[in-house]
Design a protein that fits this description.
CATH class of the largest domain: Alpha Beta
CATH topology of the largest domain: Rossmann fold
Distance between the termini: 37 Å
Mean pLDDT: 97
CATH superfamily of the largest domain: NAD(P)-binding Rossmann-like Domain
Strand content: 5-15%
Number of domains: 2
Largest sheet: 7 strands, parallel
Structural class: alpha/beta
Order of helices and strands: EHEHEHEHEHEHHHE
Strand order of the largest sheet: 3-2-1-4-5-6-7
Radius of gyration: 18 Å
Number of strands: 7
Shape: globular
Oligomer: single chain
């Protein structure tokens, strides 16, 4: 149980982040949501499953802006007493060949997918170390372990996030703080759904066939990973059973990386 703990999940108004926020609230953690989506609906959804008097808050920090990230962490400290479970989930994507890749898209992807996790981590660690307990989970990607063409910024950022995870784990190895990375394969999130729709249009097929082709191309199971499965793994990381799991990049990918 996570009663009395405070969790911050970035990019949590929908998809993977919202599923993780729900799971943490169900275990009794107070949860701070973040994101640009329908945060009121997300707050209601998480509040409905919260247990043991857990609170649900929201901060609309733009994760590409250092000042916003700092303001969010200050909010967490002042309103909730600090962050015990940090889930760095915020992410964006853009697909293009390197020579055609817009520089502003590169900068935005690195800022949101990687640099924001550095800022939240550096600001959360003093509180965690003082309590000698903390859990940091970086939602990387299978693209933090292997590459795909036309995803240079995303792959670079996610590889960097796996590297940051390992360094954080080493620097906290003799404390009660752990840091691990979650590396999903294809999950039906808004990012992946956009890729499916683009593929359907480009290849002149319907949505169902485009999804089948996308998954079959990389994921031997032929099945999408679910957000709830990923949330269960986050709960394992927060548990006593996960206390000596440190610095791993745990892929949940239907066999993608095993090929």
């Amino acid at each position: 149980m996570l009663a009395g703990k405070v969790a911050l999940v970035t990019g949590s108004t929908s998809g993977i982040g919202l599923a993780i926020a729900r799971a943490l609230a169900e275990k009794g953690a107070s949860v701070i949501l973040n994101g640009f989506g329908d945060f009121e609906s997300a707050k209601r959804e998480v509040s409905e499953v919260a247990r043991g008097g857990a609170r649900v808050g929201y901060h609309g920090a733009d994760m590409s802006r250092e000042h916003d990230v700092a303001a969010m962490m200050t909010y967490a400290a002042q309103e909730f007493g600090g962050v015990d479970v940090l889930v760095n989930n915020a992410g964006i994507q853009h697909v293009a060949k390197i020579e055609d890749f817009p520089v502003d898209k590169w900068n935005a992807i690195l800022a949101i997918n990687l640099t924001s996790a550095f800022h939240t981590t550096r600001l959360a660690l003093p509180h965690m170390k003082a309590k000698n307990w903390g859990r940091i989970v970086n939602v990387a990607s299978v693209h933090g372990l292997v590459a795909s063409a036309e995803k240079s910024a995303y792959v670079a950022a996610k590889h960097g996030l796996v590297g940051l995870t390992k360094v954080t784990a080493l620097e906290t190895a003799k404390t009660g703080v752990t840091c691990n990375a979650l590396c999903p394969g294809w999950v039906l999130t808004p990012l992946v759904e956009a890729q499916i729709k683009a593929r359907a249009e480009n290849e002149g097929v319907d949505y169902t066939e485009a999804k089948r082709r996308l998954v079959a191309e990389k994921q031997p199971s032929g099945e999408l990973v679910t957000a709830s499965q990923l949330a269960e793994l986050v709960l394992f990381f927060t548990s006593e059973a996960g206390s000596q799991v440190r610095g791993v990049a745990w892929n949940m990918d239907g066999g993608w990386v095993a090929q």
